[in-house]
Structure prediction request, 728 residues.
Amino acid sequence: MADDNPGARPRGRRRQAVTIKHVAADAGVSLQTVSRVINDGANVSPEMKTRVQSSIDKLGYVPSIAAQRMSGSRSYLILALNDRDRTIADWSSRQGVDWVDQMLLGGMLKCAELGYRMMIELVDTHNDHVERELRATIAALQPDGVILTPPHSDNPLITRLLDDQHIPFARIGSIAAGPGIRMTMDDERAARLATEHLIELGHRRIGFVSGSGEYSLSQWRVDGWKAAMAAAGLNIRDLLAEGDFSFASGERAARHLLGLRDPVTAIIASNDQMALAALDVAREQGLSVPADLSIISFDDTPIVHFAVPTLTAIDQPIAATASRAVELIIDAQRGTDLPDQPVVIPAALVRRQSTGPAPNPSPR
Amino acid sequence: MADDNPGARPRGRRRQAVTIKHVAADAGVSLQTVSRVINDGANVSPEMKTRVQSSIDKLGYVPSIAAQRMSGSRSYLILALNDRDRTIADWSSRQGVDWVDQMLLGGMLKCAELGYRMMIELVDTHNDHVERELRATIAALQPDGVILTPPHSDNPLITRLLDDQHIPFARIGSIAAGPGIRMTMDDERAARLATEHLIELGHRRIGFVSGSGEYSLSQWRVDGWKAAMAAAGLNIRDLLAEGDFSFASGERAARHLLGLRDPVTAIIASNDQMALAALDVAREQGLSVPADLSIISFDDTPIVHFAVPTLTAIDQPIAATASRAVELIIDAQRGTDLPDQPVVIPAALVRRQSTGPAPNPSPR
DNA sequence: ATGAAAGCGCTAACAT
DNA sequence: ATGTTAGCGCTTTCAT
Prediction:
């Protein structure tokens, strides 16, 4: 023990200021005991625990994550994987899409609460090297858990890899069978809610603009709309317009729905951009919203507040979902039993100005 | 008897799949040689390098950051420190403030390009424990560099701590003398640009709504406006209204400026929220923008696109600044000479619909 | 309940 | 130009 001289060493390289050794020396115990206290391990007498803890506090000791990870313990790191192209496009276009912010709001704060950190990583689904790329990221970072967002949540290359490596992970927006914790905001129910809201307002011709087929939630939303329409005995023929989440596709879809021989009096769009496009088309055709046309959007990103009129929308509880995902992942890591069924964090309908009573049938 | 099963993996612990050892064995060389190849070190013969590299590729080897950090090398981690309360407020309110996104867009992509990662950390400036908190974060993460954003950029507790620990860091939005790389978007010049734009349009009564005094850039913006006004020989008496970046303070300020005996015909607000407030007050008073009143905002967050009319604004090049900050920090780490003067990434004026010719003096 | 010893994967310092 | 030897700070075994 004479070889440990924790006091002296101001050299060029940056080393840990206070290490477990300093604490052990200060408390007059072995490294092992300090380690036990840090990790809340068993077999430590209360007095011992107090003594060590006070040394820790006194010295301001904080364990090095790198060292913890090195010795086969946790990395206290949760990785959130987002679609590369889409995220960069959202950030660059500055249209107010705040998916990543909401993930951080929910996930990062929950992580902090539990002593973990969250890191964002952009992954390109369309890339041939997804697997290689992800494998490299995992090797470099060794995260304790991973949060998958659409469309990664349904990418078998990714889920299989994580499963093989025994890394706990959540699949947001996915209910397909397979490894990982499945999480959904129940898009089908949300679409039903939106449709029912319009039906209650007297609408009969309710058009739906779908999202990109790459996201399975697109289909769920269509399904919810169909179900609500069917339950009300309403015809949906010609009322489903395909979109791909882009503004342009929303315009096309809106033109189609408003150009029908028996035009729609309400449009549900699978995201805000397409809803905004519908609003534009309505304005262009001299239709007033909501007097002549009601519009509901999915996502509830910031723009819905600034649209004129403000948009009735399905609010996606992204922050809540990310927060729950973190909890579940950490549970999983600790060996707690995991939910077998998909975890549902239900989305809600927020009523604003863009929906109103169906217009009276125009006289022919 | 503990019957060992050599084939079975230990349950909980995850170890590196491919380590430097595997590569060394495969290539038939020492660990050190592999290490040299990884780190692009000197003293490796070309053939050797090729041989090792092909083993690395074959095995899909990626160095463990934890191990690299442990052995006194880099952590390949850059930490971006944001104001806790403000960031959470922005995320929660969902008003489209995308400062963090822009930081990620610029910083994260540049990091990725250079083999680094970026992590966001929220720090509470008003907290007594800033120092303890930050010290803990550094001990846990051991970042290779730190990016400070306002108001942290001017917090001596933080800058001193980082300087003491010899951690390279950038101070975005700060030009005060002191350690660290100073970076500015030249707010004064930006305010001058905005003011000059209005003067060119014939405005003489140009009001200015300042931001919170906690941010030194607030004063710079005021200075720029004053300078431009003085250069044009215009009186600024009563034309400076104090705000604090909040919508409410923007409303108060706008009421003051429009309620003067000789009211303003143009308002420059120190951020988007306050500009939006001015727009509201104008509408409320029956003033048309830009016919009766011109408005310019700072920040250029997404909402400027959705306001009616769209807002002429000073665009803050946050992404570009974060990107440059990363470069400079990594340079600093490598011992490259650092800029002695503040690094300027100039903001630009984006002309939209909210500014127009000054109205003709109303007949008395 | 506590301690001692053996690494984890990697790099710096010193050989050769 | 390459290999060898010590650790880095921590958590496992495994003793006591």
Chain A has a mean pLDDT of 91. The domain at 20-71 of chain A is CATH 1.10.260.40 (434 Repressor (Amino-terminal Domain)).
